[in-house]
Each structure stands twice: as structure tokens, then as C-alpha cells.
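Message: A physicist's question: would you kindly supply an amino acid chain plus C-alpha cells?
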Amino acid sequence: MEKGFVYLDEMLQGVRWDVKYATWDNFTGKPVDGYEVNRIVGTQALALALQEAQKRARSLGYGLLLWDGYRPKRAVDCFMRWANQPEDNLTKERYYPNIERAEMVTKGYVASQSSHSRGSAIDLTLYHLDTGALVPMGSGFDFMDERSHHEAKGIIEMEAENRRRLRSIMENSGFKPYCFEWWHYVLRNEPYPNTYFNFTVA
């Protein structure tokens, strides 16, 4: 692992995680290049900011569930190759029912350079500490549709309020949101704002 990076589960006591890209449960339908273990890596600065977010969430009765942090550049390249392949409909209904595969890039859901590869972006949601149940957000992780936008129409008020709560927690902990994905946040003061890393998560 690169200097300045850590396993987030070692820094965030009690955090939950589920690295979809290390499994078959993601929009490509198989494990993604660069993810050899189901653990999340990030910069030390990311971990410290997430400690603050975890503290704020806990005070409201919530915990953090992490889906992705540092993403090797080779994984991003894998996404780009996949987006250019012919449609097989294996994951379309679940992840991108209303767009074509190639539109993932043009509509801003998949980028040729990802903020995740700089080590200070995080994909996450909230869960209830008392029951362990995920907080309803109106769409699932990596659902590539306008329904996943922060100001989406068509979700119920409780789901909209839950998104606002997550956003408040993250913005008050040093993060900025991404308008197309309610789950994606980037550290405002990134330690490596111009570096795209490619080491494997192992």
C-alpha cells in the first residue's frame, strides 16, 4: 500500500463495509480489476474526516456503511472497457434501466478519471444503530438514473430527508457532495488532488 494510505476499518471503530467491486454484486457483473480483498482503503486524511462523520452520525442514532473508497486506476480502466462492450442485459435492469451502457460515461455516472483514484473519495450510506437496517434513500448504490441525483424528483419525502441528513453529516465533516450520486462524497482538502494511484487493494 502507498504511504499515506490506510485500511479504513482499522481507523473507524465499528464501521460496516461491503466492497461491491470486490464481488460479483456490481454493475459489471463480476469482480473488478484491482480489488483483491473486500476491504476499503483511503488516505489518512479521509479516515480522519470519516471519524468525524461517524461521530456526527452516531449522535443521531446512525452508523456508516461504506461501499467504496480508494479505487485503483486499473479498476476505472476496467469500467471504461466494460462500458464500450455490447449490451448483454445481465445487470441493466438493476443498475441502468433507463440509459444505454455507453451513456454511463456521457451522463456522468462513470468517469475516465475518478476522484476515488486520488484516495479521498467515499461511497457510503447510513444505517440504524439500533436495528442495523439501512436507511431508505430512494435508490440503491450505483443506480445510474436521475432518481439517484441529490435533488431527484419521484422519491418520497422521508427518503429525501434521509439524503439531506447524510449530506449534512458529510458536509459538516469536511466533504463535498456529487450532484448525480447521493452516496458519493469527496474530501474538500484532498492530500493528493492531482495524483491518480494504481496500486491494488490487497
